[in-house]
């Protein structure tokens, strides 16, 4: 697939548009069939996983592993508790994120995303004149490995931003190791059924008060409830590919709240772009034939499809 060309950077951010007219959404942001958060959506009972139990060598860790396997096969996501990160630290992370987005536009735009790149502050790439844009502003940063950090995009205001984010990255690395060890037991996984993030794993610290995340399950949208100090963790497309479809990368969306801003911190765990991703051979047999091709630099492919409103997994399916 040819690399699409970005037409131009977005001249005005969503926060600026909302400040100009909080009641009128420009047509370019209106997506058919998606409304504001509505109480009529049922709540998804996302399985809760105790990471302390999962990492332990006690007899109960087996039960928790079974719960994890079932959750990732059926839902594609979990609410992770007892993850070892204090409530005070999570609140500090939320606060520095909130402080950054509350800065004047001129200050935030010092860290603006450059054309053709995903790193930095701003919105999505604009690839066509009729592209429907997301009603969101993002600050996208590479956290690890540290030598790949592009510090010109890392805010120096608030002053504690860089230190807090680096600490968070270190803490998440420990959690990631626990999860990957638990997921990498092919003799103990079962299941089968479907899309969303281009990562292997996504770790989301949701807004503490404002809901908005919805997951598609069995062709129906469900609201994901907030558990204030839990991390919402979901598998991404690359985990679905490597598990040959056993783990499900869930389709999800965020609906808007007309009264309040929603700030979340999402960390995407992805392999190096040069690393080839393919189903684990032990998971391919006559009952479960190979479903996906070998792919490389899936994230670049993901963003190309995402901006065009298409499902990136199309490119990986056999």
From TrEMBL:
Organism domain of life: Eukaryota
Pfam families: 2OG-FeII_Oxy (PF03171), DIOX_N (PF14226)
PROSITE patterns membership: FE2OG_OXY
UniProt keyword terms in alphabetical order: Iron, Metal-binding, Oxidoreductase
UniProt domain Fe2OG dioxygenase: residue ranges: 157-271
GO molecular function, one term: metal ion binding
Family the UniProt entry places it in: Belongs to the iron/ascorbate-dependent oxidoreductase family.
The protein's name in its UniProt record: Fe2OG dioxygenase domain-containing protein
Source species taxonomy: Eukaryota, Viridiplantae, Streptophyta, Embryophyta, Tracheophyta
